[in-house]
Amino acid sequence: MLIRNMKKAMAHAIAALKDKAGATAVEFSLVVTPFLMIMMSTFEVGWFYFANSQVDSAVTAAARFIRTGQAQEGGFDKDEFFNKVCPSLAPFGDCNQTLTVEVDTFSSFAELAADTSPVVCTNDDTSKITALSYDPGGDNAIVRIRICLLYKTMNPTIGVNVSNVDGGKRRLYGSYIFRNEPYSKNNRTTPSS
Predict the structure, then answer these.
(1) How far apart are CA 147 and CA 150, in angstroms?
(2) Alpha carbon separation from 173 to 114, 119, 147, 187 (Å, rounded)
(3) 69, 183 in Cβ contact below 8 A?
(4) Is 143 among the domain residues?
(5) Mind listing the pLDDT tens digit for each residue in 105-149?
(6) Residue 30, domain member (yes or no)
(7) How far is CA 120 from the centre of its chain?
């Protein structure tokens, strides 16, 4: 009788070990959280690099617009130039709330190197934002353009957190230093022969 009961118990134990009814659900619950964290982290880092490349592209296009004299000859003021830069960065939010643009002219590269002022973003003091300069300079002027985009990260709580400012936001900077072309000596109004 004891042997028969032991055989029955052993048979039930073997049957229980072979039963896989809830194994898939348990395995899924163990794997889903790390999988989602990796997936969201990959998406977040990809979005970060996309935003960063857009800032670089915007500052390069803005620099070319000034370097070739189009901003100066077009009579662009600070607001018009801001509106010229904004469209390429508008997918990241309202430009008035996320974007700052600064254009400075320097008399020498030594003066430029001595300027260690930080980049101003929209989450800085309002007086600093309104004091941002716009001086595109003239022919052969040394110019520095600095852009700051404050964008909200996609998922600061799951996976990699790339935010570096309170509220799950990140400050992205772009700068470009160049010497203006002698654009006033170009005769663009006369058709080429």
Answers:
(1) 10
(2) 19, 8, 6, 35
(3) yes
(4) yes
(5) 999 999 999 999 999 998 888 999 999 999 999 999 999 999 999
(6) no
(7) 15
